[in-house]
Amino acid sequence: MTDCNSDIKGYHSERVKLTGSQRKQLIYWRDANRDRLRSGLENNNDPSPKKSVSQGSHAMRTTIQEPGDKYDIDDGVVFKQEDLQGPRGAEKTAREARKMVRDAVQDERFSRQPEIKTNCVRVFYNEGPHVDIPVYRSNNTGYELASSDWKESDPEGVNSWFSECVNRKNAQGMKHFRELIRLIKSMCKNRPSYSLPSGFVITVLVNERYTVGNDRLDIDLYKVIKSLHERLCANLRVPHPVVGEWLIDGDKEHKTKKLREILGDATKTLKCLDQINCTRSQALKAWKEVLCTDYFQDKIAEVEEKEKKKTIEMVAAASSYNPRQYSNK
Length: 329
Known about the structure:
By secondary structure, the protein is of the alpha+beta class. It folds into two domains: 20-153, Beta Polymerase, domain 2, CATH 3.30.460.90; 159-278, no CATH class. It is built from eleven helices and ten strands. It has helices at residues 5-16, 20-43, 56-60, 94-105, 155-171, 177-189, 199-209, 217-234, 253-269, 280-291, 297-319, and strands at residues 51-54, 72-80, 115-116, 121-124, 130-133, 135-139, 142-146, 150-153, 238-239, 246-248. Strands 1, 2, 3, 4, 5, 6, 7 and 8 form an eight-stranded mixed sheet that branches. A hairpin with a 2-residue loop joins strand 6 and strand 7 (142-146). Helix 2 (20-43) crosses helix 4. The longest helix is centred in the first third of the chain and has 24 residues, at 20-43.
C-alpha cells in the first residue's frame, strides 16, 4: 500500500488531537464549572453532590480539535438518592433534580444562561465551549440518570469499559486505538451538514472492528474504514457496551446509514492505494478527499513537483541511452 504514514500522523497531530494547552484549558473549564455548581448548591441550601464523574471523549482522551473552541465537555454529578427530596419529603423527580442543578450553575456573567436538556444541564461558556452536566442519583443497586424519568445508567462503568479496551488492544499490538477513534470522528466532524452518529457510537464501532494492529497508522486507518463499512452493511444497529440498551436502534438507523455511505465512498476512493503504480500524490489526494481536509494540499503540490521532475529525468535518461556503446565489438 502506498506509504502515507507520516502524512496521516502529521494530520492527526496538527489538526485532530488536542494539544497539551488545549487539554489544560478543557480541564480548567470543567473544574471551574464544578466549583460553580458546588457553590451554587450551597447558596441555595440544596444537597451537596457525592462526587463528579468525567465522561465521554474528555474522560477517554479522544476529544478532537474544534474550530472556535466549540467543545462539548461531559461532566456528570452524582447525588445520594436519599438527599434528593422535595420540601415535603417526597423524592425529587428527574426534572426537579436537573432544575436544581440548573439553578446552581446560573451566573450573571454568562451571555447565555444554562439550560435544562433531556439528559443533562448545559452550561454555555462565553469563550465557545459548553459543559453538559448529566445528573445522577446513586443507591444500593447503582446509578440512575435524570432523563425524561429516572433511568438506569453507569457512567463509571463506561469509563472502566473503555480503559479495559485500551489495555487489551495495547497488549495485542493494536497501538492506534485512540488515534483511529479521533480520525473517524474527524471524518464526521468535517462533514457538518450530515446527521451522523455520536462520538461514543464511533468509539464502540472502532473497538468492535479494530482487531489487528499494524505499525503504520495509515494502514490501520484504511483497514478500519473498510471494516466499519462491512459491519454497517451487515447491521446498522449499535448496542451499548455496558447498559442493556441500544445506542442506535431502529429509530436512529438513519445516522449509521449515512455513516455507511461515507465509509463506502471512502473505501472506493482509497482503492487506488493498493495499485502498484499508485503515486504518492495520488494517494495523498485520496486521503484529502476521504478526510475532507485541506491539510494535504501543500504536500500534494510539493510531491507532484518532485514526481514531475523525476519523470523528466527518467525520460531524458532514456532518450540519451545508446545501446551501441555497450555492445561487444
